[in-house]
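Hi everyone, sorry if this is the wrong subforum. Our group has a chain we'd like a structural model of before ordering constructs, and none of us has done structure prediction before. Sequence below.
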Amino acid sequence: MGRMHVEVGREYNMSGLKMPNIGLGTYPMKGEQLTNAVIAALECGYRMFDTAHNYCNEDHLGNSLKIALQKTGITREEVFIQTKVGEEHWEGINDMKLFSKKEKNECKDIFAIVKDQVETSLEKLQVDYLDCVLIHFPYPDYFLEIWKALEVLHKQGTINYIGVSNCRERHLKKIIENCEIVPIVNQVEISPVNTVQSVVDFCKKNNIIVQTYSPLMPLRHKLKDNNVLLELAKKYNVAVSQIVLKWNMQNDCIPLPKSSNPERIKQNITLNFKIEDSDMLKINALNENYQSLPQSIYCPGY
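Answer:
Right subforum, don't worry. Here is the predicted structure as tokens:
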């Protein structure tokens, strides 16, 4: 196993893992924009950074972290770096090349593909271990094969923890029933209009951490000028975005908001207030199973 990460955050008894209770989403930031965002994030308390193979910015994040760690004096061991294995560049299910069978009886060396991606991630991120690697989507043709490849790589010591993204209960059950290691994380789209409560409940029951990607996306359209959130923001004297992020946390989820604005980056982690139970119920009641992002609606195997 790689070096143990130690960071002030939530502790999960099943593994001794301490994971920060908020992280910075990095897609699609690159270059100077990403470097400035990482520096601002580290300076105000972020210690987790999320990327993916097909975000095409792992090398940019590696450079940004190298610069930011030198500038802030924070060490690699204090930072939780998470990435994902998945398709290279694709426009949808029919465009998949790595993790789909073009012919019924086709057999691919999935371990070699996954190993190559992990090694590429290590090189691009300029690290000798990864804190966590997720399967980006539950690719139906090779889902268990990808997971078993990650299990082997975890045992070899280059990955501290392994998890999944965009998985529902049936996918998680498949791993639990057929594999050795239960995912440490399931990263999904969750918002007040898409609570996916059954997935959250299943994860809690099985000690799987729930991370929420793009948690503020619905504020741009579906929840723009929402009266309930506006009233609560006024009541607690915070921004609507802070209400949504705190709602995530009080539902035992870890949000991964993305921003390149230093003021918003700091605002997103300044959540030293508590939403009353009655107000949590008001936010929960906004649910209508509305998904904002196409990858969570149309992703393979979903």
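For your construct planning: The beta strands are 10-12, 17-19, 24-25, 48-50, 80-85, 130-135, 159-165, 185-188, 209-213, 253-256. The chain has one domain: 10-298.
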